[in-house]
Amino acid sequence: MQLIQAKDYEDMSRKAANIISAQVILKPNCVLGLATGSSPLSTYANLIEWYKKGDLDFSNVSSVNLDEYRGLTADNDQSYRYFMNTNLFDHINIDKSKTYVPDGTEPDSAKACSRHDEIIEELGGIDLQLLGMGLNGHIGFNEPAAEFPKGTHCVDLTQSTIEANSRFFASIDDVPTQAYTMGIQSIMLAKKILVIVSGANKAQIVADAFLGPVTPEVPASILQMHPDVTVVADADALSVYLERCKA
Ligand code: F6R
Q1: 147 C-alpha to center of ligand 1: Å?
Q2: I need a labelling partner for 192 at 20 to 30 A (CA). Which of 28, 66, 184, 235 fits?
Q3: Are strands 2-6 and 99-100 parallel, antiparallel or unpaired?
Q4: Ligand 1 mutation pick, 42, 116, 133, max ligand atoms within 8 A of CB
Q5: Ligand 1 mean position to 148 CA, how many Å?
Q6: Nearest alpha carbon, ligand 1 atom 1
Q7: How far apart are CA 34 and CA 45, in angstroms?
Q8: In total, how many domains does the chain have?
């Protein structure tokens, strides 16, 4: 695992965007695995800016997203498809028909999930998977559990995730309780993984995930086993990790 220390959120975002840019420049027809949430917002803003300057071309890029709320349509402003369109896809020259977010409108969860895994396989796998990390160490919507889930599957969201996500909804009752998410195996099959973490509230989980035991109780800890992981984290997120390294 390579750890890149960033000063703050903006520095983390520029560094992450540089890594994604390098991927797109080196392999113009690459498959990017993308995430939603607050962590990647400024990373995406940088990519848009550099695209507009003429430094990046996404015309041959495909993308797959980690997850989607079950039951939300693409035009629902809380769906992850809507997030991706408004925060990235609408502003760059990616071919939207080559951007894949799990289909939240498919009521047959087995069908929606197996289709997402098939798409990843048909694309030849993910070249670079971008990940944020939840306060409880979740990646995608893979919550702490007794076992690591494998492929894309339907999950019941934990109360802590529902609460964390409620900031995006009018009320906590509007937060969907289920989601389709890529599994740990789908994530681990990516050729390269880029994790971005910012903020003091993530400091404890960063230390647990990357210095603690590999356990499904801390889903991100599995990333210790991946051969090509880069973590870009800011000073606040690294405070406990760096203390523990010194001890
Ligand atoms: C988003 C996702 C989630 C987030 C995580 C961190 O597609 O899969 O695992 O990455 O919840 O969220 P933020 O970045 O909002 O702290």
Answers
A1: 20
A2: 235
A3: unpaired
A4: 133
A5: 18
A6: 36
A7: 14
A8: 1
pLDDT tens across 42-91, in order?
A: 999 999 999 999 999 999 999 999 999 998 999 999 999 999 999 999 99
Cβ contact 235:6 at 8 Å? yes
- List active site positions: 67, 136, 138, 143
Per residue in 204-233, pLDDT (tens digit) is 999 999 999 999 999 999 999 999 999 999
Residue 84 has which token pair? 């991706």
pLDDT above 70 coverage of the chain, percent: 100
Provide the residue type at 173 as one letter: D
Which residues have CB under 8 Å from 23's CB, separation 6+?
A: 30, 32, 127, 128, 192
Please give the residue range of the domain that contains residue 73. Answer: 2-246
Strand partners, 31: 62
Q: What is the pLDDT of residue 162?
A: 87
C-alpha span between 12 and 196 (Å, rounded): 7
Select from 43, 84, 138 the residue to mutate for testing ligand 1; criterion: most ligand atoms less than 8 Å from CB: 138
Question: What letter represents residue 16's amino acid?
Answer: A
